[in-house]
């Protein structure tokens, strides 16, 4: 028996066994994080949760999948403009054939996806209409900064407000729009 803090030496088959387990653990970790990433498929929207989250049903079959639009942040449902943003997403995608390209999985297991309808980038359309912000990251204004600037200039959607609040700032100040209900689910505040 060897205790790591005592500085053990692995020799022969113990070394091989150690490195095999280390490699296997690394591969399992990578696979678990990226299952579904890079996946492309045709789908139909099943339901719209909010202005940047929807459930889709792949045309090839299988379980419905929860997706979040990559590159945007829409107002929370309980935030000013939240219901209108959800309705705008619904108008763009319901009863239409979607082309889904999952890029990543987020911490909640949702696929972060680029979605197109008839060749139109859905996230770009929402930002252009003023119903979402281009996702900011460090010093970048995000992938749809030009569309956001145009929506602000035209005072479209949430940008018609005098001081629209970024959804991330709203979440930081107010938390989730949902609270547990007495049935083990959630309800809107």
TrEMBL record:
<dbReference type="InterPro" id="IPR035437">
    <property type="entry name" value="SNase_OB-fold_sf"/>
</dbReference>
<protein>
    <recommendedName>
        <fullName>TNase-like domain-containing protein</fullName>
    </recommendedName>
</protein>
<dbReference type="InterPro" id="IPR016071">
    <property type="entry name" value="Staphylococal_nuclease_OB-fold"/>
</dbReference>
<keyword id="KW-0378">Hydrolase</keyword>
<feature type="domain" description="TNase-like">
    <location>
        <begin position="39"/>
        <end position="161"/>
    </location>
</feature>
<keyword id="KW-0255">Endonuclease</keyword>
<dbReference type="Pfam" id="PF00565">
    <property type="entry name" value="SNase"/>
</dbReference>
<keyword id="KW-0540">Nuclease</keyword>
<dbReference type="GO" id="GO:0004519">
    <property type="term" value="F:endonuclease activity"/>
</dbReference>
<dbReference type="GO" id="GO:0016787">
    <property type="term" value="F:hydrolase activity"/>
</dbReference>
């Amino acid at each position: 028996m060897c205790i790591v803090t005592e500085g053990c030496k692995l020799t022969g088959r113990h070394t091989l066994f150690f490195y095999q387990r280390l490699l296997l653990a690394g591969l399992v970790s990578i696979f678990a994080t990226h299952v579904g990433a890079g996946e492309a498929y045709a789908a139909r929207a099943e339901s719209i949760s909010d202005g940047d989250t929807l459930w889709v049903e792949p045309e090839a079959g299988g379980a419905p999948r929860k997706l979040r639009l990559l590159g945007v942040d829409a107002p929370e449902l309980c935030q000013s403009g939240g219901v209108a943003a959800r309705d705008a997403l619904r108008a763009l995608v319901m009863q239409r054939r979607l082309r889904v390209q999952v890029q990543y999985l987020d911490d909640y297991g949702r696929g972060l996806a680029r979605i197109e309808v008839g060749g139109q980038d859905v996230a770009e359309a929402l930002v252009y209409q003023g119903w979402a912000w281009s996702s900011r990251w460090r010093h970048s204004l995000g992938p749809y900064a030009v569309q956001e600037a145009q929506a602000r200039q035209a005072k479209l959607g949430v940008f018609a407000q005098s001081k629209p609040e970024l959804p991330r700032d709203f979440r930081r100040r107010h938390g989730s729009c949902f609270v547990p209900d007495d049935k083990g689910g959630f309800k809107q505040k």
